[in-house]
Amino acid sequence: MKTEHQGRDAMPREAQLARAVRLALGALGMTAALGMSPGALAQTADGEIDPALRRVEITGSAIKRLESETALPVQVITRAEIEKAGVTTAAELMARVSANVGGLTDGASINVGGDQRGFNSANLRGVGTSSTLVLLNGRRMANFASPGDDTGVDLNNIPAAALQRVEVLLDGASALYGTDAIGGVINFITRKDYQGLDLNVYGSRTDEGGAGKRTASITAGTGNLETDGYNVFAVVDLQKTDRLSTSQRKFIPNLQVPQRLGHLLSSYTSPANIRLSGDQRDFLQEKGFLLNGKPITNRLINLSIPGCSGPANVYLPAGTGGVDACTYNYMGDTELYPKTDKQNLLARGVFKVNSDHQLYAEAALSRSRSYYVGSTSRPDGDIDAGMVPQLAAAGLTGPLALRIRLDEAGRRTSELTSESQRYVVGATGTVAKWDYDIGLNHSVNVVKDRDTHGYLLADQLQQGITDGQINPFGASTAQGKALLDKIQVNDEVRHARGSMDSLDFKFSRALTAMGGGELALAVGGEVRRERTEFRPSELLLSGNITDDPAPEGGRVTSDSRNVQAIYSELLLPFTKQWQAQLSGRYDHYQQVGGALSPKIGLTFMPNKQVLMRASAGKGFRAPSMSDLHRPTVYSQTATLPDPVLCAAEDNDYSSCANNWDTRRYSNDKLKPERSRQFSAGLVLEPSQHWTFSADYWNIERTSLISEIGDDIILGNLAKYGDLVHRNEDNEIDYIDLRKENRGAQKASGIDLTADLHGVKTAWGRFGGHLSGTYVLASKIQTSPGDAYVSNLNTFVTDGVVQRWRHTITLDWDLGPYSASLSNTYSSGYRDQNSAINTDDGSVVQPNRVKAYTIWDMSGAYAFSKQFKLRAGIQNLFNTSPPYSNQAYYFLSGYDPSYTDPRGRRFYASANYSFK
């Protein structure tokens, strides 16, 4: 996926050196991921350095300079690379970056009633979405407003069609943009002075059906800034993606979830399971009551066994339902990928006051709507035993507790809308040799979560079950079906709004000459106000919606805080070989406090073929507004056994495994996380065609803001048993998950790149790239004094960090023809294997997840300078996600955080430009 390198062979040696230095700064790591030479950003079509780009501002520095001079690792993706990759969203783009581990995606956010559905995020180095800073044109955006564990910008709000390039700073804790960027900074940079009209359409379909996509974008601009004194342009991007259901993928039954992961399935079935009390079970056993020709042994029974009315409801003696009841396989009755509609508009205008000053304004509007369809409603219910003829005949009396799966009510469906507005006005220019940029930024994100179908009014549902209108064991009467239609909920149950208003400024200039160039200084600062509002609906707060409980102490919340920051940067080119970059930033957060975060970067170039660099710094991340003030959230664990109950039930998982209720609490006493990081790198350019780089990075965080994982709590009840609340029968009532400053995190690794470019032959021009990340350590300490738990190549609680991830690309072009072949790879790892069996420590067969490798291919033909067609195949060999027994995500049988269930996809795009 490497683009055409026009005039590469004619590039002067100094330009090659500049490109080598840019590689040293890590540009290759990202550009290799999508196959574009970093040198292209600073070249014109004939291969010469573009004079207009000789002094530019690069992410990681506030001082304008040659791109090749920056001291920190900046990786660059150009617009051409994005087009060649066949990706249409910022989230898809970031999924191809080896340093991005465990970001949130449409697939991973599938859930029923889960936090932050619809949120697409980046997660550099795997240290957390909240520790990756996302910018648009160098400035912050409002975070995804829905309260939850992750804080960050929704990548759906990035107008992908408007992007000119993306710059990624992998050196964490930016002293310039915010020291909460512990994992790094991603700066999405849009076009700024476009002229003409550009039309682009894109369509894709999958080999097995579902998840098709259509996109269209229009870019229009007028005015030449130099000759006309102004430029105004706008970009409109429209996208639609179809839903993908489990029934549309052959690999789902091949995962054998019922056979392998029976403990993860549900005991809420259709026909309904009956949950007997201990006395009721004993009574039926004494009476000789038989099911399926055998005496009952468990408290959970189903009168229809072994039929169970498949296909999603199955008889699975080893599953959660046990030998006397049914088990519900929700992986046979849900969606793998949501239907989405996404619209983005970006408009920008620049007015030239004179040769030294410009005024600019920018507006970005976006709306992303995701339609989540989960399994059918699963209410509890109660009826009198006399209403069940078989049990009444046995003499059983009293109330019966039911675990019902209401297929007649339809699958639970939600509509999640994320809307963003961002307005920036500012001025830039030069005053008395000082370059300046001053801007006002108003940014808003609104998230609307609507229950649209399959959620029911609980009181009327229970009454309908009790009086017999709704039949939990089969088809209901016409009256019962009419009642189910009547009590369907269509309500915006959660409304969240987050806003950010800021004023920022920066000034920079050269001060004096030094041995290697000009000593330069930059100073800047920012004042911003952050606001969050969360408004649950009256219906939600009433607690009267099945499967969507009211938060404890639920109420409307509105919180705000002020943040101030000031920073400075000093560039010290001691000699032609030695250069230093010194910077520092002081941030102060209302209620939380402040901290000074220093940073130093060094580069040494002993000759034109070798460059060495290093950096070190400190940072801190203040707790988010959600961490501090989020209302208590009622949720559930995956289906996990309770060791205490299992010991009393002879390890009968039909009796001692369940989706245990949890209560997740914020904490307004949280303190900031602290971090320190350093890196060191080496770049070699042995010839004009080859460049190699290796960069070591190391991050350590302390006072982590986190919860203890529910699997860790149940796995160590001796230490964390006080977080597990039990009822009078010694069954789990709920588990406390509390935000605290606890423990630490360490991560380190090596980024490796290799670049072969400009190999010109009689059969065309060839190139190749490799970009990979080899992780040396990734581990978390749950509490001070505890041993570190490594999630390197091991799934722990909520995810895994694979030891090795890479992207390899091979490129070819000849005249109007071009083609590329790319491979993305994630190494295998030890599976979660942590659901508890008091006999052998596991309820699943220990598993090692296989490596995941995907091949993509594309080709293009340029009919003219104006018109180009491209076609490609993503996931060429239709590789399915490898089997996993993870119990964290709603989807089971594979890990949706880094795999793609869509399978082989064919796409084509057409682009026409009027200049």
From TrEMBL:
Alphabetical list of InterPro entries matching this protein: Beta-barrel_TonB, Beta-barrel_TonB_sf, Plug_dom, Plug_dom_sf, TonB-dep_rcpt-like
CDD domains, per database record: ligand_gated_channel
Keyword Membrane: yes
Domain TonB-dependent receptor-like beta-barrel stretches: 419-876
Domain TonB-dependent receptor plug: start-end pairs: 68-185
Keywords associated with the record: Cell outer membrane, Membrane, Receptor, TonB box, Transmembrane, Transmembrane beta strand, Transport
A GO-annotated cellular component: cell outer membrane
Entry membrane topology: Multi-pass membrane protein
Location of this chain's protein in the cell: Cell outer membrane
First-listed, main subcellular location of the protein, grouped into a coarse class: membrane
UniProt-listed PROSITE patterns: TONB_DEPENDENT_REC_3
A Pfam family reported for this protein in Swiss-Prot or TrEMBL: Plug
Alphabetical list of Gene3D superfamilies matching this protein: TonB-dependent receptor, beta-barrel domain, TonB-dependent receptor, plug domain
Protein family membership: Belongs to the TonB-dependent receptor family.
Name of this protein: Iron complex outermembrane recepter protein
